[in-house]
Amino acid sequence: MTAMSGGCQCGRITYTAEVEAMEGYLCHCRMCQRATGGVSIAFVNLPKDSVVWHRAPDWYASSPIAKRPFCSSCGTPLGFMFDDGENIDLTVGSFDEPDRFVPTRNFGIESRHAAWEDTSQLPGVRADEWEPTRSRWIAATGRVPGRD
């Protein structure tokens, strides 16, 4: 087991999770697409009792059978949980070290958008090198943020 920390963008909601395997999955279902605004969401599935919330998240009843933790201050989606389930899914992006996880499966593939499956061949630009973003950060804070 590895203790891993995470939380929302503004830092109001934080957690520590005991993670056994560094495995995650992508959910493509329409509920997750609508809840996150993305074409899919990356999750890590964990037993509920392996997660300690240092400050309790807000919860949204996203359907008659499930709810989603989030931060009402910054809007960060933090996960998904069936009402009667023993596990919780935490969003990979909310972990402090999301790059430690690897995807191992897909779920909700009936709603998968094939055009977004492999974007690795598309041109890419680093956010810290994109001048419109860079100059705004420097004007606002005096620096360009790193990976935090």
From TrEMBL:
Matching Gene3D superfamilies: glutathione-dependent formaldehyde- activating enzyme (gfa)
Domain CENP-V/GFA positions: 4-131
Single Gene Ontology MF annotation: metal ion binding
Presence of keyword Lyase: yes
Keyword vocabulary terms for this entry: Lyase, Metal-binding, Zinc
Family membership noted in the UniProt record: Belongs to the Gfa family.
Name of the protein in question: CENP-V/GFA domain-containing protein
Species in which this protein is naturally found: Parvularcula dongshanensis
Taxonomic lineage of the native organism: Bacteria, Pseudomonadati, Pseudomonadota, Alphaproteobacteria, Parvularculales
